[in-house]
From TrEMBL, chains A, B:
InterPro entries membership: HTH_LacI, Lambda_DNA-bd_dom_sf, Peripla_BP/Lac1_sug-bd_dom, Peripla_BP_I
Taxonomic superkingdom: Bacteria
Organism: Peribacillus huizhouensis
Keywords on record: DNA-binding, Repressor, Transcription, Transcription regulation
Listed name of the protein: LacI family transcriptional regulator
UniProt key word DNA-binding: yes
Domain HTH lacI-type: 5-59
SMART domains reported for this sequence: HTH_LACI
Length: 336, 336
DNA sequence: CCTTTTTGTAAAAACGTTTACATTTGGATT
DNA sequence: AATCCAAATGTAAACGTTTTTACAAAAAGG
């Protein structure tokens, strides 16, 4: 188990040329059975482990991927990472994991190091907002979750609009009119589409938008917590809240608990994306569930597929939208 | 932002030799200010990005680390990963993240690929049990959380014994005698030391061990859930439970909720390691908190420090034990 | 003004592979 | 037995760097 043994040592020991050893190991060219066995025996004896880097210099392929997420401690991203890493492993790729803290400059430093390292491709949940940034990508990239229109890249996203629309419609069907939304910044499609879905559902049912009921903050728990408290302090508080991501939903659940308000009784709640608390509290909180792991696997598969296409047949960008599922539990009160 | 520009292109464009360009970029040898500026200008103009791999072939350093964990979706491990990755990034290293599913064979395949890729060092939460496996490591390795005695490697662990002892003592001081433990396998020090701590605290206080009160399963939530239900079904159920990791604790909380038992009233509970549910429920669950992020940073720092020591001055293995903190909340009833 | 030292730069050899091309081998066909 | 062809193997040039060696030019010292 040492790595200071090179292909030359194997060649010498086996009385063949390095080319032959290489051929045996990569199995591309024909080698006689006799020499194959002889070489493999020596490889085993010496515990020879090929140096991937040296090979990469020739082949121009590193068999390395990168997956870039805003925050490695958010379970949603971890799930995407796991999906990507697993598929990559299956296909013989190793994966770098980067966490950008949703900062453009940290993402920039990542891109430089991924360039230096010649990663073959990137699964990216990007921090950059400008399509121009994405246009000048010189490597295969699959965007996940966030998609920048006009960037020219492939992407795997989910049906944010549909999920939010269904969630809101569900509240309306249960008789709610005063429906609040707590959501993140309107920077990316995740924010905008969920907000649109909410808006559209209200419009389609003839419910007027109330600006006090719309809380646009960040995507973190504290936004959910504070916004919920503010909402419930209003002269006429909403009867239902749509929490537009996992952390916000957790914040809302905590705030309602601290306000001594019972979910599904005093206030109705629907979340977006699964989370520990939503599953724990009684009644369990209804959520729009999205296929997080599958987003990761799908992206990895698309990426590796793309790598195989020798020709860069500049096809049109492919955007895959995965469906979501509204899971109904007891957190929504029927107002009749 | 292309990577097909090599040091030769820069050299040609700047009318210097490749050696000079290399010297400018690495800043080791002396270069006149004039040529330095000239070269840097061309570097910028051409958007030259050095190829790390080619450099690695010479320097024998890849500036790549690996961090290996059993399960990337467990928040404890994610926190360790984050610590390691952040320190690595600061020091100019990129980090591979591997998840082994706690399987020895998956760990083996990882080791081979890390060998092929010539990672400089490894932060490892290992799946292997046999010290012999660790003894034949040919790369700098820092073990985290789990430490195999006699493996000859450096490690960063926490005070499992002390934490478990304190937790149990705390329960005893509050008047409890019938104290159960739900813990994982006794394969590694994490399991054994926590169990010993529990045992010792009982012994030191003259409390006899009851085998029915000791649940040894795996480290997952379902073990906590099922074991709790079994415990509470006993003719004489325990008055207090020590849940020996984060997931088990979550399982216990859920089981008690489903059994309609109130924490801190019907049953007392202390957990090991923070978790969402312990922080959420009222009363909040007391836990032994461990410095997860710091375990990652500390390990990375030790590793990088080790890499700097040119001489492999085969010193004795260094085992660092980080302290834990018992955080007391309302989950333990005072029995007087 | 000549010698010695310092400074800046270039040339070339490595690093461990892959691969295009060249050569050898051996069996089949004349 | 001579010839040919395919299969098997060897040779050597790449890949993009770093680093050692060498050498010229400039600076310093007598």
């Amino acid at each position: 188990m040492t790595c200071d043994i090179t292909i030359k040592d194997v060649a010498k020991q086996a009385n063949v040329s390095v080319a032959t050893v290489s051929r045996v190991l990569n199995g591309l060219d024909r080698v006689s059975d006799q020499t194959r066995k002889k070489v493999l025996k020596v490889v085993k004896e010496l515990n020879y482990v090929p140096n991937t880097m040296a090979a990469s210099m020739i082949t121009k392929q590193t068999q390395m991927l990168a997956v870039v997420v805003p925050e490695i401690e958010n379970p949603f991203y971890t799930s995407v990472i796991k999906g990507t890493v697993n598929v990559a492993k299956e296909r013989g790729y190793n994966t770098f994991v980067f966490s950008t803290n949703d900062s453009e400059s940290e993402e920039d430093t990542f891109f430089e190091s991924s360039l230096r390292r010649n990663v073959d491709g990137i699964v990216l949940i990007g921090a950059h907002k400008d399509p121009v940034f994405y246009q000048k990508m010189n490597k295969p990239v699959i965007l996940v979750d966030r998609y920048i229109d006009g960037c020219g890249l492939d992407g795997v996203i989910i049906d944010n609009f549909g999920g939010a629309y269904e969630a809101t419609k569900y509240l309306i069907e249960y008789g709610h009119r005063d429906i609040a939304i707590i959501t993140g910044p309107q920077t990316f499609n995740d924010g905008t589409e969920r907000y649109w879905g909410y808006q559209q559902a209200l419009k389609d049912n003839g419910i007027e938008l109330v600006s006090d009921y719309q809380k646009h903050g960040d995507w973190f728990e504290n936004n959910g917590y504070q916004s919920t408290k503010e909402l419930m302090k209003l002269p006429k508080p909403p009867t239902a809240i749509f929490a537009a991501n996992n952390l916000i939903c957790q914040g809302t659940i905590k705030a309602l608990r601290d306000l001594d308000l019972t979910i599904g009784l005093d206030v109705s709640l629907v979340g977006f994306d699964a989370n520990d608390l939503a599953e724990f509290v009684k009644p369990r909180v209804s959520v729009v569930k999205r296929p997080t792991y599958e987003m990761g696997t799908h992206a990895a598969e698309m990426l590796i597929e793309k790598l195989k296409q020798v020709e860069k047949n500049e096809s049109f960008p492919k955007k895959v939208t995965l469906g979501v599922e509204l899971q109904k539990f007891g957190s929504v009160k029927y107002l009749g």
